[in-house]
Write a structure and sequence with these properties.
Layout: H1 3-8, E1 17-19, E2 40-42, E3 63-65, E4 86-88, E5 108-110, E6 131-133, E7 154-156
Parallel strand pairs: 1-2, 2-3, 3-4, 4-5, 5-6, 6-7
Length: 163
C-alpha cells in the first residue's frame, strides 16, 4: 500500500511527517486530516504547480519540501503559514518570488536550480533567516535589504549571472 493509499484509508492518523512522491498533479485534500499533528510535509518529485489557499489549516507545519515539481512562482499562501521555518523548492521552474510568499518564521529557504532573476527586498525582513540557497538561477544582484539578515550563516549563489 502506497503512502497516498494509506493516507486515504486513514492509516496515517496522527502522523507528524508525510512523504508523498507519487506523481501528484494536485494537492491531496486528505492531508488536511493531519492538520493537528503534521509538522513535516515532503511533496517532492511530483508534478504540482500550486498549493491550496487553505494550506494554513496545517497549523503545525514547520517544514515543506516541494522540490522537483512544476512551480513557476513561489506560492503566496506560504506566507500565511505561521510555523513554517524551512522551505525547499529546488529544481522547479520558479521565476517569481513574491514578498507575500515569505513566512515571518523563515529560517531556511532553498530555491536552487530555478529561473529566478530577482528577489523581493522584503527578504531582508526575514529576521530568522539562517540558510539561503540560490545557486543555479539567473540572479544578477541581491537586494540590499538582505544586509538586515543578521542571522544568515550560509548563502549559496554559485551558477548565477553575477558580474
Amino acid at each position: 500500500m502506497t503512502p497516498l493509499e494509506q493516507l486515504r484509508a486513514g492509516k496515517l492518523a496522527g502522523s507528524r511527517r508525510l512523504n508523498l512522491s507519487c506523481g501528484l498533479t494536485e494537492f491531496p485534500p486528505e492531508i488536511f486530516g493531519l492538520a493537528d499533528t503534521l509538522e513535516i510535509l515532503d511533496l517532492s518529485c511530483n508534478a504540482l504547480t500550486s498549493l491550496p489557499d487553505d494550506l494554513p489549516r496545517l497549523h503545525k507545519l514547520r517544514i515543506l519540501f516541494c522540490s522537483d515539481n512544476r512551480f513557476t512562482r513561489l506560492p503566496e499562501v506560504l506566507g500565511q503559514c505561521p510555523q513554517l521555518g524551512m522551505l525547499g523548492f529546488k529544481a522547479n521552474q520558479i521565476r517569481g518570488v513574491p514578498a507575500a510568499a515569505l513566512p515571518s518564521s523563515l529560517r531556511w529557504l532553498i530555491l536552487t536550480d530555478n529561473r529566478i532573476e530577482a528577489l523581493p527586498p522584503e527578504l531582508g525582513a526575514c529576521a530568522q533567516l539562517q540558510k539561503l540557497m540560490l545557486a543555479g538561477n539567473r540572479l544578477q544582484s541581491l537586494p540590499q535589504e538582505m544586509a538586515a539578515c543578521g542571522r544568515l550563516e550560509l548563502l549559496r549563489i554559485a551558477a548565477n549571472r553575477f558580474e
